[in-house]
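Internal ticket #5521
Category: modeling
Description: The requester needs a full-assembly model to guide mutagenesis choices. All entity lines are attached below as received. Residue total reported by intake: 1008.
Assigned to: D.W.
Attached entities:
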Amino acid sequence: MITPVEHAPKLRARRLRLHTQHEPVVVMRTDCHVCRAEGLSARSQVLLTAGDRQVQATLFQIDSDLIGLDEAALSEAAWSLLGVVEGDLIEVSHPPTLDSLSSVRRRIYGNRLGEAAMAGIVRDVVAGRYTDVHLAAFLTASAAVPLDADETAYLTKAMIEAGDRLTWDAPVVVDKHSVGGLPGNRTTPIVVAIVAAHGLTMPKTSSRAITSPAGTADTMETLTNVDLDLATMRRVVEAEGACLAWGGAVRLSPADDIFIRIERALDIDTEGQLIASVLSKKIATGSTHVVIDIPVGPTAKVRSEDAAVALAARLTETATRFGLTLVCRQSNGDQPVGRGIGPALEAWDVLAVLQTADDAPEDLRRRACALAGAALELGGAVPKGDGEAAAAATLEDGRAWTKFQRICEAQGGLKTPPRAPLQQVLTAPRAGRIVHINNRKIARLAKLSGAPDSKAAGLTMEVRLGHEVAAGQPLVTVHAQTGGELDYALDYAARNLDMIETEA
Amino acid sequence: MITPVEHAPKLRARRLRLHTQHEPVVVMRTDCHVCRAEGLSARSQVLLTAGDRQVQATLFQIDSDLIGLDEAALSEAAWSLLGVVEGDLIEVSHPPTLDSLSSVRRRIYGNRLGEAAMAGIVRDVVAGRYTDVHLAAFLTASAAVPLDADETAYLTKAMIEAGDRLTWDAPVVVDKHSVGGLPGNRTTPIVVAIVAAHGLTMPKTSSRAITSPAGTADTMETLTNVDLDLATMRRVVEAEGACLAWGGAVRLSPADDIFIRIERALDIDTEGQLIASVLSKKIATGSTHVVIDIPVGPTAKVRSEDAAVALAARLTETATRFGLTLVCRQSNGDQPVGRGIGPALEAWDVLAVLQTADDAPEDLRRRACALAGAALELGGAVPKGDGEAAAAATLEDGRAWTKFQRICEAQGGLKTPPRAPLQQVLTAPRAGRIVHINNRKIARLAKLSGAPDSKAAGLTMEVRLGHEVAAGQPLVTVHAQTGGELDYALDYAARNLDMIETEA
């Protein structure tokens, strides 16, 4: 949507090479003619127009000759969204009134949103017209008074329609998702390899971490290129039946990554947003059959069987509205899965399972087989009841590992995940049996060590529930890429010794 | 609270003269040793320490030699908070974990907050440790599931304790507040002049606009200096018995202005926040007796008598917990008050009433006398029942105008409010009687014309409810300081002709 701007004052584009994460920023002189004519002040939202492209940016003003009087100096986000070259003319104007904000306000005050209102919000979000304050308010309002079934479906639909939508020649397109909250639960790369080895189509796109130390996209990025455009993704899937791509690199439900950035800052992840996030991605990817893993445990995202049943019901109900066949499986969520927690450390676990290494984490292998088995059955590749055994056989005879390597090669080559230069072992203060592991504190510790932004950072778990440990025996190894991050993690660990509880 | 930072890497302070509104920003080279050692990325929050001062800032990174490798380039907000000079050494480190954010998360998920949790949130807010995302989440959560009586009192207490607290020698200290939502309802300067002329103590501090086109501080700023430090405020009150200061210039409930900035961006203003905002300011100012004006009307902030009674009850209940004597008065909120809407335009109305000009707006005069009368009675200056007449007499004989001039002189001199260079009259599309005026749309129009940031911008109302108009007769005059703002307001007016409804 291009709003025509008549007689808007113009400035010359200048690339500032300023990194502001996703936020488009423009820096202009306080005394430039545009600021004066338009009555602009610092942190105003402004509409930048260059040719047929527009972007809404946050204005910062400067009183110094670092920037010329006739210049609009752009952050990298604004520069790439506008697609300008040095010196291009940019029109600067007030952004149009955001009518969808009145829907957000109505939602804050407890009113339900209809289909058109939700579509309007998501359209403006994807167009970059919402500031962080607006985004946080929308997400908080839909957490404080949770989205109902209709709102969840409307949000899902709006998120699908605000992006691209893939179609595949295969009649059955399989997908898989874990609800998360369980550190190290990195089954997806293994499931994809097994399912594709059976000839099913599985064009997998994954998110980066929301509130966890790693998402599948973060882990896969340490193994191969995940930043695939649509054409590359299609070529990989046509050749290998599957891919392992970052969802944000294609425009599938582009609102999702914007919401995720704010949810990550707030460390919240609510049911309605979760359902819309998962299903909008699956439907936009063209999936027809989806297996959902719901880990349940006292410190997992889902804390009781009842809650898991309720979530499964809401997921299934919403999926049905879109003609999607969906099956949910509960799994044990009492402790982290595998050994590694963090992008590269989880990649090493995935490789160990795929390569049937002697020290491969057995819990990760079994979970992946259960999910891959369910997908094989749901997709009609094996008879009902045979799925798990078929999946295990595909790992054991090396077909899954071969398929995984072929997928990575097709995406640009298999890489060796990095190792962190700094490691520090945390030891048991006293002898005893491990009776409780707090997933949330373990995840927090891994994040403080630098994961997921520092790819090699994170933890390796040296114990599991039920293990007997001696005083001074290793519990967890912290991996960090910088001393600052290591100190930060160790400081947290010292204040949270209850994250792994022992009983004499 | 200074967190000791050992061996933190240091950079040289550089003043960037970058205006970012309130947000402390630091710009560092992507390849500088601090970013690399600490694993910092764009938009990380960082803790800057210089001597005994600390500030939490948003990090932007730059790939260019505009900034030196050893420099930390500071926005004006960061520069003044840190109190550094060019070249001073600044330590850069990760900010401490914000424990109070877990309280915000618990509140988002519907749990009530206790006294300690609320105090922790407000302390971190005042210390500048909350990003806009965190602030928006806290305010939205306490709007979506409104603050209860206990939470409101805890928030009020936390806001008082996070700032300074004044004490006065007088046994009775009077204050006054209008709940707002009624454009042009600028009674405060008149009430203060009348009450002080009767010898009562009224050290008035006012906010800037939240969601309206002008707050009392915005209007008073066009008449005199309102940016008074504590010593000046005390000197003015000792000399004249009253002042008319901006609350944000002293550290009275400093959280309030931070919350207000976000509430303004969201255009929300909820009951609990309103009560905590009003009462924390009053109590921190040392007031003992307060009169509250609650305008009621279909498009005012409070829309029904029932809602006004409920708000009055909650205000009174919370005030009582703090030993404050409070009386609420409902007033008619069907239409804007006076003629002007916008900082300077309202100042002209105030001057007209104080100077008993022939064309002084009668509704503004009557409202001010009613409130001043209530304050005179509450403060014991006149017998019960005599207040309004005493107030009117004080205006008529010039004592109020004299007192007002003396207060302004004591604050730095009486100024002439500015006039906007651009004016455009909006006329009646057809003849008829004015039957409805939409306060919200009128306020929105005034804001689009540039108020309150552009002091002279806003509207003058040319009609009132019940007036008969001919087609083409003026309804409203839009005042703007720039062509961009005028166009923007006129565009909105053209799309919202129903803001003033006529009936044939």
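Resolution: model delivered.
Comment from assignee: Chain B touches chain A through 63 residues (CB under 8 Å).
Ticket closed.
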